[in-house]
Protein: Fur family transcriptional regulator, peroxide stress response regulator
Amino acid sequence: MSIHPHHQPAPTPEQLQQQLAEAGLRATRQRLLILESLLVLPGHPTAEQVHQRVTGQLPSVSLGTVYKALDSFVAAGLTRRVASAEGSRRRYDADCTEHHHLVCADTQEIIDYCDPQLDELIRGFFAAKGLPGFQAHSFSLHVTGSRVADPPTADSAQQSA
Structure:
């Protein structure tokens, strides 16, 4: 089980060009900046956050261009759309590995969560139940809640005694 932040160092222009080429997309300056922004912005950014970062480097890029590029990245498998706690804003996740999302209803923060045991339980559940007329390829659990203070562990209780 692990909770991990979504923040990476800036990829090189060559790495960005390679990702776009492998996805079958042309490496335009706009797409390169949008993909880079998506990869380096913390958390699960909105199109508006990506647009704000991109226009700092290329002011002529419209919000519509950002949405179109992000949609093409989703279609090509470079990113995923993530439901947000507020529901109305699309957020994006550049991490396409299997993981789940914990959404804080208070702060709107989306936290990546990995747990192979949970994944196995979900696979087993659907294998046992079956899905008539449907073949599942992947899954992502979305859990909404609130952050709470970490409970003291036995070790920390002994240290404070």
Q: What stands out?
A: Strands lie at 2-4, 80-82, 91-93, 100-104, 110-114, 142-145. The two ends are 29 Å apart (CA to CA).
